[in-house]
Amino acid sequence: MGGLKDELLKAIWHAFTALDLDHSGKVSKSQLKVLSHNLCTVLKVPHDPVALEEHFRDDDEGPVSNQGYMPYLNKFILEKVQDNFDKIEFNRMCWTLCVKKNLTKSPLLITEEDAFKVWVIFNFLSEDKYPLIIVPEEIEYLLKKLTEAMGGGWQQEQFEHYKINFDDSKDGLSAWELIELIGNGQFSKGMDRQTISMAINEVFNELILDVLKQGYMMKKGHRRKNWTERWFVLKPNIISYYVSEDLKDKKGDILLDENCCVESLPDKDGKKCLFIIKCFDKTFEISASDKKKKQEWIQAIHSTIHLLKLGSPPPHKEARQRRKEMRKKLLAEQEELERQMKELQAANESKQEELETVRKKLEEAASRAAEEEKKRLQTQVELQARFSTELEREKLIRQQMEEQVAQKSSELEQYLQRVRELEDMYLKLQEALEDERQARQDEEMVRKLQARLLEEESSKRAELEKWHLVQQQAIQTTEAEKQELEHQRVMKEQALQEAMAQLEQLELERKQALEQYEGVKKKLEMATNKTKSWKDKVAHHEGLIRLIEPGSKNPHLITNWGPAAFTQAELEEREKNWKEKKTTE
Length: 585
Hints:
InterPro entries: EF-hand-dom_pair (IPR011992), EF-hand_SWAP70_N (IPR057836), PH-like_dom_sf (IPR011993), PH_domain (IPR001849), PH_SWAP70 (IPR057837). By secondary structure, this protein is an alpha+beta fold. Helices cover about 65% and strands about 10% of the residues. Among the domains are: about 1-100, Recoverin, domain 1 (Orthogonal Bundle); about 105-210; about 215-315, Roll (PH-domain like). The strands form three sheets. Strands 6-5-4-3-9-8-7 form a seven-stranded antiparallel beta sheet, covered by helices on one side. Strands 1-2 form a two-stranded antiparallel sheet. Helix 7 (about 135-150) crosses helix 10 (about 195-205). The longest helix has about 140 residues, at about 410-545. It starts with a helix and ends with a helix.
């Protein structure tokens, strides 16, 4: 029921948007009342005008949005819908409301009736989200079906070129863009209007009316036992037969269920290519036009009964669901891949930031080490200059003291005091040298720290390259799976071509066997004629002879002309002798 509701909502959405004249997303209440009444009529839902008035009775006399109309639509219409209404009539009512506003005014190769069928097919193939669109994959599926129905060859390169020029800002086409695409003949060049119309009708019958197979066949009557040509239409649970393919005069139905079966019959009563459909209370004998049609109908009916046993939907609906699930799966995989790529990119950026931070720290440490080295060298130069000056000064003082030692003994104490000062200065110089050694050790520690930071940078870079390799392997794995799927598709196409070649070979062998059968049949007829003529002569001759012989005591054979001229035993003996003679010849 949920699937039926979704399909109905798509057509109702078209009608609602058509009533929204100013594109504000709202429709006047009077128009919605008329729309609701029409929906109840075509969907065969009891109309409740009181509930309609109650739902739209409020202080606001303005328009009602789509969201405001949905509660009433669900409660009073869609939840009461049964599968007993005319879907074509329902779609045509919604089409009538929206066609004048949206259908292009430019001339198209298709009629308005064909455009209506394309519109209904669009609703069937469109995605379950609004505004409604049909994605390129479903467009390709529909165009392939139309091309096959027209008997043409699918131009994949032309469609790929069309997809390349497709507007990237849109995920698909609207119903009216699809009608214009099919109507302008871009993918049906060389085809006339009637061929295109017949192709649209065939695809419409299959996808919308669930027609699995249709065609003319002979049916044996149940009362008069006469054979009459009928137009048969196979659907998922019924076979209807009509006087002609216009479907105006319906003659009956064959209800199918899981207990029905279809079997091939040998030719009889001058009818060929026979098969029988066995149902619970009736059997139906049908004659196809040729063996190929017979086999196709038996296979189609058998597949339909098998689907009824499994409770599966029709093949085209099941295929549509599989395509949607495949698109959802691919979208989920793409989103997961994008998420992984974003995570890898974020991790990469984080690593880059960490490396940049480490690099800045290393540069700062190197700058500090350079400044300390510069200060140390400057201090060393100053100490050396100071030491040299002090040494020169000490030499000068010693020379002065040696000159004055004899004369000034009082200056000896000053000299000794000066020596002590020099010793203190020497100790200070030793401390300065110790400080220089300590500075060298600090420099060595900074160099080791720099080496360790460089090693950590190398390990971080290796880890980053490892993540990059994992990313490349993931991309290669995805490409390999894609190539494998493409290889499987190519293999299936080759298998299909081989099967078609085998079918053509079998058809050729069947024709040759039929020609041989006709030749043998003619020879058999000639031999039968000769045998009959010879039997008449022998019978006549033997009859004349037996007339003058005495009658046998055994009982005589009775023919249409009276008693026979010979007994049963004599007849069997004569037939035996004749067969032996015929064999020796």
